[in-house]
Design brief:
It is found in: Endoplasmic reticulum membrane. Its main location: endoplasmic reticulum. InterPro entries: EMC6-like. It comes from Kuraishia capsulata CBS 1993. Helix 1 runs antiparallel to helix 2 and helix 1 packs parallel to helix 5. The chain has one domain. It has 5 helices and no strands. The termini are far apart. Helix content is 75%, strand content 0%. The protein is mainly α.
């Protein structure tokens, strides 16, 4: 009898791309919500930027705790570039959305 070898190291490119898109979609939405909330709270200058960075880190960690059950060794299996690639790849896009909503809500509330 031949033993059937189970190879769990196979990764599927379509699944990895879907995982990355889901991660970026969540970051895009949260950056818009965070920008709106910082505008409503009337945060200015570094206070708003620190608010974005801290809450962005919290959202990223919460995503990995919920999706990967806190097992950081699974990150390379589900995401090609690992944690630094995911966080820094979409950071400029998230930051742009945050600043856009921050300025818009600040302008709307101050008038």
């Amino acid at each position: 009898m031949s033993a059937i070898r189970k190879d769990f190291s196979v990764t599927y490119k379509a699944n990895i791309v879907a995982n990355i898109n889901t991660f970026h979609h969540i970051h895009d939405l949260t950056s818009l919500v965070l920008g709106s909330s910082s505008g409503i709270l009337q945060l200015e200058s570094y206070h708003g930027l620190i608010y974005f960075l801290v809450t962005n880190i919290i959202v990223t960690l919460a995503f990995f705790v919920v999706i990967l059950s806190g097992n950081l060794k699974l990150i390379p299996k589900y995401y090609e570039k690992g944690l630094p690639g995911l966080v820094f790849e979409g950071l400029s896009r998230s930051l742009a959305g945050f600043f856009m909503m921050w300025c818009l809500t600040t302008a709307l509330i101050s008038t």
